[in-house]
Amino acid sequence: MRLSRGALARFRRDAYAILASVLLCPDEARLTHLRAEARRLQRLGNRLTGLAIFRQWSALLRVLGAASRRSGETLRTEFIDLVAGPAASCIPFESHYVLAAGHEMPVLNAALEREYAAAGLTWNPKAADSPDHLAVELEFMAFLCGCEGHAWEDEKLEDAGVALVREQRFMRQHVGRWAPAFARGLTANGSHFYAVIGAALEAFIHHDRDLIDLLVRSVPASVGVLGRPAGHLGVR
């Protein structure tokens, strides 16, 4: 069974949201939420078998669904060693990957805050993480996919096109540039739990980058959003 465009956008929203959540500290409440989400998403089952990432996605849902309270302390210790500690081997911040290319951190974070604001979101300066944390960027992609899904369901083609162009721009300028390298680090350095997360994250980003490009090209030219400069897309 093929997914409608609205259903596909909702799946992508949920995928980004769950991938964002696994990159935060796996406390008891988060593990409980992840188990519930994994079991809910597993019920989509055969509707996703046609996706090229089905194998990695299924493996991710299996390990999340099996995460237990007893394993929580071990996962939290590994999370600190792998991602969050001072000697972490997998740095979840875009600045770590792009500063070598001549970018400055304040400039990068300001650009990200402008992206969030253009979509109607305000960055909380008291937030524990910075705007370039991968979990934040993935949550933003989830938000855009949610906007796209609502637009398809309401038959607002122009709004769907606006959301897709935003997704494409953010993927090209941010997530797609560095998330795969971070994911490969998880796969290479993590336990089975985090290695599966890394493999699913890398596969999903590569797949969604191509899918977004395809979806943008499929929006009818008569809708009129594809010719607009990306920086001038307005929030509706």
Mean pLDDT: 87
Amino-to-carboxy terminus distance: 32 Å
Residue stretches low in confidence (pLDDT < 50, at least 5 long) are 226-236
Just give the CATH class.
Mainly Alpha
The secondary-structure element order is HHHHHHHHH
What structural class do you assign from the helix and strand content?
mainly alpha
Oligomer state of the chains in this structure: single chain
Strand content: under 5%
Per DSSP E runs of 2 or more residues, the count of β-strands stands at 0
Main sheet summary? none
The CATH topology is given as TorD-like
| Tally of individual helices | 9
The name of the CATH superfamily reads: TorD-like
In CATH terms, what is the architecture? Orthogonal Bundle
Gyration radius, rounded: 18 Å
| Total domain count | 1
Shape: globular
Approximately how much helix is present in the residues?
55-70%
Notable traits:
mainly alpha, 0% strand, single chain, TorD-like, disordered C terminus, 236 residues, 9 helices
Task: Show the helix and strand layout.
Layout: H1 5-21, H2 28-42, H3 54-66, H4 69-84, H5 94-98, H6 105-118, H7 134-153, H8 157-189, H9 192-218
Helix pairs in contact: 1-7, 2-3, 3-9, 7-8, 8-9
How is this structure best described in words?
- This protein has 236 residues and is an all-alpha fold.
- The protein contains nine helices and no strands.
- It has helices at residues 5-21, 28-42, 54-66, 69-84, 94-98, 105-118, 134-153, 157-189, 192-218.
- The two termini are 32 Å apart.
